[in-house]
Amino acid sequence: MYLEHVSSPADVRALPASALPALAAEIRSAIVGSTSVIGGHTGSNLASVELTIALHRVFETPRDKIVFDVSHQTYAHKMLTGRAAAFLDPARYGEVSGFSNPSESEHDLFAMGHTSTSVSLACGLAAARDLAGEKYDVVAVIGDGSLSGGLAFEGLDNAAELGSNLIIVVNDNEWSIAPNHGGLYRNLAELRATHGEAPRNAFRALGLDYRYLEDGHDIAALEAALAELRGTDHPVVLHVHTEKGHGYAPAAGNPEGWHHAVPFDVETGAVLPGAAAHPADENYANVTGALLMDWMRTDPRVVAVNAATPYIMGFTPELRARAGAQFVDVGIAEEHAVSYATGLARGGARPVLGIYATFLQRAYDQLWHDLCLNAAPVTILVFGASAFGTPDATHLGFFDIPMLGSMPGLTYLAPTCIEEYLDMLSWSIEHEGGPVAIRVPVAEGVVSRPDFARADDYARGWEVLREGSDVALLALGDFLPLGERVADALAGRGVSATLVNPRLATTPDETLLGRLVARHRVIVTLEDGILDGGFGERCARALAADDVRTLCYGLPRAFVDRYDPDALLASCGITVEGVVADALAALEH
Amino acid sequence: MYLEHVSSPADVRALPASALPALAAEIRSAIVGSTSVIGGHTGSNLASVELTIALHRVFETPRDKIVFDVSHQTYAHKMLTGRAAAFLDPARYGEVSGFSNPSESEHDLFAMGHTSTSVSLACGLAAARDLAGEKYDVVAVIGDGSLSGGLAFEGLDNAAELGSNLIIVVNDNEWSIAPNHGGLYRNLAELRATHGEAPRNAFRALGLDYRYLEDGHDIAALEAALAELRGTDHPVVLHVHTEKGHGYAPAAGNPEGWHHAVPFDVETGAVLPGAAAHPADENYANVTGALLMDWMRTDPRVVAVNAATPYIMGFTPELRARAGAQFVDVGIAEEHAVSYATGLARGGARPVLGIYATFLQRAYDQLWHDLCLNAAPVTILVFGASAFGTPDATHLGFFDIPMLGSMPGLTYLAPTCIEEYLDMLSWSIEHEGGPVAIRVPVAEGVVSRPDFARADDYARGWEVLREGSDVALLALGDFLPLGERVADALAGRGVSATLVNPRLATTPDETLLGRLVARHRVIVTLEDGILDGGFGERCARALAADDVRTLCYGLPRAFVDRYDPDALLASCGITVEGVVADALAALEH
């Protein structure tokens, strides 16, 4: 086995060319083997094996700089830079993160996991190199859907002005997470069909030099093409055609399904029983898709909008086909998704945009300047906003409440159970009071409360679930079950607590707070999000001039990485025992 | 005079073609006349007079939809849609806003003032039209630098998939606010030079149909070109060449200086004495540019980065030339600016990015995912973050504290005077503890405190300026003078207040707060920003479990428009008398 003896890129360069196909096969086998056990980005990584080998044979990192866009396709890069054991030895699976990680290796330049940043980052590296009067190659590797994000365009557009060494490898595997969308991808198809010769060429139009390589799995050809560009004195694009899932039939046959895989049987590709990564997500996805399909049948104005992750809102390929023009995937283009939805609403449609909290960050100004400034009736379903969402620092989803909490006129709802979620979603579609966002529950899986209290107007106020005294618990959204457990535990200590479902994540119910202050000495806020700028802080201000003690529980403003959610909560004092003890102490103060 | 008799676009369509040059001249004269008195976007509006007349002769708004990107070039549109008096009658100057405004007219579809949104909004309008089975034309008018924003690319990229009527007019006046940057603008130049025939064509490369019109001031030619596209069944780009400042020599001769004009003498174009819109801004700009030039001379790593508004950081054309490669204007591309700065820092440079608060919103995810996740040593100078910044709803700058307050590891400093600002800027360039943002003061103009207390480490804590008891005033940044006035007034009422310069806009000094709580019964926070998610709220949480009353003063989470800043503050209770009265009442509570 070659891979076991590769401890740095120098070892890759020392191998004879004849050994490389075997090395690629070993890497491919390690990708399939490790992701079959712990899950991961199987398809994208299988596509970039040979390209990564060639990059490390032609360029000498860390002196030369390689920036992998999104960086979920860096498994081969990690294996070739001293981290192979984490993919070969089942006992060490998961020892490295799934993304580029400077704390793991000097060959990883940036922590990154959102798309479309690589060219801008590489432009900065190149400019710093030129300022310092140094000489080395700077390479951005972009693909896998990342080109449709506006930042990638800004990067390419500015790269054309650089006037010095920059190599942009477009790893064209024909896919985003879901199918590619947009005119640029048609242009890539045209370029593939003409072996790069088509006169229409988006890269050349921006003033960039351009080369094409058809077989992105031919290491010798890749090496030759890259070697030719090494030391270039101007920015140049190398467009490489690869196959998502290459070399593993189940993945190659279903690129969307295998973009990110959960544990599977290597022989058949079948998902292992009980291996669905986020069963709650899937369940919420299904009911979302089903409810929206119902709405679409009776209301032609309803449109589901999505940015390359249709599955989060339950839009399987089959549902997409049934929805027709009432389902729109704009590709990886979150800014466009929000402004487009604003235009849809202004034109009389009722858009429902489903998006991960971490990616909604990319449309902050469109939320503020387009959606909210125009009070457009759009519903935004915010997924993964929880300590129990993706536990990678690059994809944390629990910064949403401060983000949306400074948007004028936006109603941000936090349902506590699946029934309330669906009712809020239907309510939002008919709501005429401006945009509504809904924080889809995550923390406790699918919580069912068939007897939840419907509201005629969810924008109006909070709901008291249990009347008590002394301590009032404001348990936001998916932390309601936690609030219930705390209330039960307090009852066991002789304190009958009031339990509130605030419903609104960013707007205190001043009337109710006034009533609570009169009968309670301690107010406790519980939220599945960061404290800084969050729900609890807003309550603390609303209560700041009152004679009451407020205890706020939430998450840290920090890039926690690959954490255990329960341990994270415990480190923030968010346990039933911890909250009860604090509340009792505050009562006695 | 024709213009006085135009009360709607139908009147424009009823005019004989022979009258149109005179109408254009009248509009042009009204633009120059009104902006010479109240200021405004002189150059951009002069460029789009004939185009606007032609648009309203060919399309029938409000049935047809026209979306003007940025919308600062809609003066002619306003004049032709019933609002001419606001430009003709000096007594009514300023009666209408400087941007597209749906509350003024059914011909204005969106409130908007940030760039690059029009194509996405128009795609949404077109999709809504198609869903409803209606027929009308949807037109996006984009230019004046707006094409370099990534959202414009996302819009164009998605437009190519629309498959129905959409007309994109590229109003190419050869300028952004400052000179254009990026490969796309080189392509526009190539297309202009070849009358649209160049084989390199960024629009065609994206799959869009394309036409070129050289003389963007020839109304007949514009009408003919637009009429040909009316009712098109697919997206098409009409590239029109215009001249920024057309027809007014001072503006045409200095497009950057006349992008936005302050009151001027019509005869000579000279700025009227005392007419500089933001003297404090100019002063802060000058000292920023001068200090950065000093740094650059001694430290080749220092780079000033900017996104199309170099003047805010004092970089006049002359300074730009002197700075050479140490000054970079990336054009209107704020996302790129932040990621690029991150790359620069990773490559060993020390970037200082100057940007308006309202435009920094466009780079929210790049701040979070690139800059902060990578703890990159970058300084961001945040301009206009104040109730006393631009008072247009589209450009409010006082939402910055919640935005930056949820960024992990970012130090956000709020200097109280020009000396402290400069010291913090120098400190930030040498700071190795991750990114630093600095909130450039606005509210009270240039405040000088030569005896300000330097800190060796501004990230560490707050500063007590006056020791008192009972009431502690936490007066953030440019509200320090307000805090001083409140402290003086309290002294007059027999209360010796403590006055604190918090320095840090998003991080409570827990140690100092603990000390304050011991000796004060009332804590007052004063901030020139929104309360929701702001500085006061953070203090309120830090103090929530203590036996103290906290009063928070700040701005509303609302799209206030064309407001008087002092009146806005008064409406929020922010007057010396108001705060004093509240504090005294709280003491007696």
Automatic annotation (TrEMBL), chains A, B:
Biochemical pathway: Metabolic intermediate biosynthesis; 1-deoxy-D-xylulose 5-phosphate biosynthesis; 1-deoxy-D-xylulose 5-phosphate from D-glyceraldehyde 3-phosphate and pyruvate: step 1/1
Requisite cofactors: Mg(2+)
UniProt-listed CDD domains: TPP_DXS, TPP_PYR_DXS_TK_like
Gene3D superfamilies the record matches: 3.40.50.920, 3.40.50.970
Enzyme Commission numbers on file: 2.2.1.7
GO molecular function: 1-deoxy-D-xylulose-5-phosphate synthase activity
Annotated Transketolase-like pyrimidine-binding domain residues: 282-448
Keyword annotations: Isoprene biosynthesis, Magnesium, Metal-binding, Thiamine biosynthesis, Thiamine pyrophosphate, Transferase
Lineage: superkingdom: Bacteria
Pfam families: DXP_synthase_N, Transket_pyr, Transketolase_C
Enzyme class, UniProt record, top EC level: transferase
Quaternary assembly: Homodimer.
Similarity annotation: Belongs to the transketolase family. DXPS subfamily.
Protein name as catalogued: 1-deoxy-D-xylulose-5-phosphate synthase
Source species: Thermophilibacter gallinarum
Species classification: Bacteria, Bacillati, Actinomycetota, Coriobacteriia, Coriobacteriales
